[in-house]
């Protein structure tokens, strides 16, 4: 077998290991899904009536559900990514990492296996949250291309945020720190077009919101699910995701070569 | 590796962390098929030596060859020949014993039937068959250490590093582990063992090296060292040769 074939095989082995971890920690998966579900219920049933009235063109709770549902899906991706920082930190602080480092395996497989498992878990979590949104009355207008686009951008975002969280987890040095440092991923969507249109914010904040990565990602997903063409938002969204992926992949690999258990 | 190539050859090895010199020109040769016990108090540089030989840590100066391969330039070849069981348990506690062993078999690229056979064989050998499908987190200290060593052996390494393998084990588990070490040597495996227990070195090692202050202060068979220092036990030897007692708990 070639080096690449071994790397793929080792990554698959590590993927299986991480999926087993996730299956054995169902409480963590439930918590990850509970967070976006709570946001969805809160924003639709508590704030939705008033927020909907403030949307361009007006509307009520139903209109706001249509506006906020794509943002909640993006928050679901963040929520899963957060947990990956914990898995990465746990691996890095336990003795087994030294075992992997003394074995003739593709080093990157430890990390790519974790990222692959995160993408699987994200797909599961997003499906559950989307199912709930549909049950509450969310009716996306997307056709087949729109759905494919939505799946595509959510996958790219999941890969980018997971690599970011792998790096943060490895850099953390402890599981406790790793559960705190990526929290900004839950705050950032609030300062984006997730919950309100950016032009309704104060001038300075609107500028920040328009230029931070979550806004083009959420706008792109919203466009795909509404059956519209996302236009230049898609270019920005894909660009941001690829940039974060490449930088954090390199950063993770550097950190991984240095981590030492014990 | 042929029979005349030493399994481990360390020459003029130096390692420092900032101002603190840990290894100060260490020379060490372990012939293939023997057990070498590196004995010394905490901080003598035992773990650092093992970590460098097992490619976890880069040396500052000197050369280290394991199974005939340089650890710096041919680390992958070294990794194919070695197994490491360290002081900290290197098992996956969320997986069962069987799954832990299977993980090692898969990473060693064994075929499916080979992997299954090897896993069952290791479970039986280490008395873990009954507990095979329980999560490793539920294992006792002795069982965890046995699983750890079983995982190290899945890929049939020629050179095995055991860093304080029996620290914290009860006397029975310790004797079980000694028995396994003897069996491995009978199969032709080379073992570098670090320990704070003088009795352990006395029981298992062909050669004992006394490490103090980052270099070897004495080396020989347990009998030679006892004769050389006029001591009855390795405790006496240690005291006579280093001027201070080894911090031992027997």
TrEMBL record, chain A:
MF terms in GO: ABC-type transporter activity
- Source domain of life: Bacteria
- Write out the entry's keywords from A to Z: Antibiotic resistance, Cell membrane, Membrane, Transmembrane, Transmembrane helix, Transport
- Give the membrane topology, semicolon-separated if more than one: Multi-pass membrane protein
Q: Where are the transmembrane segments?
A: 22-47, 67-89, 110-135, 147-172, 184-209, 234-252
Keyword flag Membrane: yes
Protein family per UniProt:
Belongs to the ABC-2 integral membrane protein family.
- Tell me which stretches of the chain form a coiled coil: none
* Cellular component annotations (GO), alphabetically ordered: ATP-binding cassette (ABC) transporter complex
GO biological process per UniProt: response to antibiotic
Q: What InterPro entries has UniProt attached to this entry?
A: ABC2_TM (IPR013525), ABC2_TM_bact-type (IPR047817), ABC_2_transport (IPR000412), Nod_factor_ABC_transporter (IPR051784)
Q: What is this protein called?
A: Transport permease protein
Indicate where this protein resides in the cell: Cell membrane; Membrane
From TrEMBL, chain B:
A single Gene Ontology molecular function, please? Answer: ATP hydrolysis activity
The record's section on Gene3D superfamilies has: P-loop containing nucleotide triphosphate hydrolases
On whether Transmembrane helix is a keyword of this UniProt record, the answer is no
Q: Cross-referenced InterPro entries, in alphabetical order? A: AAA+_ATPase, ABC_transporter-like_ATP-bd, ABC_transporter-like_CS, ABC_transporter_ATP-binding, P-loop_NTPase
* GO process annotations (BP): response to antibiotic
Membrane topology label: Peripheral membrane protein
What sections of the protein cross the membrane? none
Q: Which GO terms describe its cellular component?
A: plasma membrane
SMART domains assigned: AAA
What Pfam families does the record point to? Answer: ABC_tran
**Keywords from the named record:** Antibiotic resistance, ATP-binding, Cell membrane, Membrane, Nucleotide-binding, Translocase, Transport
Compartment(s): Cell membrane
What is the designated name of this protein? ABC transporter, ATP-binding component
């Amino acid at each position: 077998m070639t080096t690449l074939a071994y790397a793929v095989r080792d990554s698959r082995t590590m993927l299986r290991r991480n999926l087993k971890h996730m299956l054995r920690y169902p409480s963590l998966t439930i918590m990850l899904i509970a967070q976006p579900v709570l946001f969805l219920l809160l924003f639709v049933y508590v704030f939705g009536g008033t927020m909907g009235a403030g949307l361009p063109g007006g509307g009520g709770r139903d209109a706001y559900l249509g506006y906020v549902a794509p943002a909640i899906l993006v928050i679901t991706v963040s929520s899963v990514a957060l947990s990956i920082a914990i898995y990465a930190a746990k691996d890095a602080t336990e003795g087994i990492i030294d075992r992997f480092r003394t074995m003739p395996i593709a080093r990157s497989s430890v990390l790519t296996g974790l990222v692959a498992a995160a993408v699987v878990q994200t797909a599961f979590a997003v499906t559950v949250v989307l199912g709930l949104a549909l049950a509450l009355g969310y009716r996306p207008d997307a056709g087949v291309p729109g759905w494919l686009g939505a799946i595509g951008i959510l996958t790219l975002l999941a890969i980018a945020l997971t690599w970011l969280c792998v790096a943060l987890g490895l850099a953390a040095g402890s599981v406790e720190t790793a559960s705190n440092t990526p929290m900004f991923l839950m705050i950032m969507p609030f300062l984006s077009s997730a919950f309100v249109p950016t032009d309704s914010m104060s001038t300075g904040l609107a500028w920040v919101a328009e230029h931070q990565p979550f806004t083009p990602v959420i706008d792109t997903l919203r466009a795909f699910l509404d059956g519209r063409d996302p236009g230049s938002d898609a270019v920005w969204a894909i660009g941001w995701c690829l940039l974060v992926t490449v930088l954090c992949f390199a950063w993770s690999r550097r950190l991984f070569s240095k981590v030492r258990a014990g | 590796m042929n029979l005349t190539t030493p399994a481990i050859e360390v020459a003029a090895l130096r390692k420092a962390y900032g101002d603190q010199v840990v290894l100060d020109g260490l020379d060490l040769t372990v012939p293939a098929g023997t057990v070498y016990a590196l004995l010394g108090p905490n901080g003598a540089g035992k773990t650092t030596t093992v970590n460098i030989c097992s490619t976890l840590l880069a040396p500052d100066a000197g050369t280290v060859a394991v199974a005939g391969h340089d650890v710096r330039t041919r680390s992958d070849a070294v990794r194919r020949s070695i197994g490491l069981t360290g002081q900290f348990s290197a098992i996956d506690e969320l997986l069962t014993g069987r799954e832990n062993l299977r993980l090692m078999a898969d990473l060693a690229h064994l075929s499916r039937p080979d992997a299954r056979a090897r896993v069952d064989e290791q479970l039986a050998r280490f008395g873990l068959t009954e507990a095979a499908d329980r999560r490793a987190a539920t294992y006792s200290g002795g069982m965890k250490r046995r699983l750890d060593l079983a995982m190290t052996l899945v890929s049939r390494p020629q050179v095995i590093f055991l860093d304080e393998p029996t620290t914290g084990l009860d006397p029975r588990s310790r004797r079980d582990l000694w028995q396994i070490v003897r069996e491995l040597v009978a199969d032709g495996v080379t073992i570098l063992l670090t320990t704070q227990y003088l009795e352990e070195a006395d029981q298992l090692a062909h050669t004992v090296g006394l490490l103090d202050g980052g270099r070897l202060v004495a080396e020989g068979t347990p009998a030679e060292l006892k004769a050389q220092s006029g001591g009855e036990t390795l405790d006496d030897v240690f005291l006579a040769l280093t001027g201070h007692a080894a911090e031992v708990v027997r």
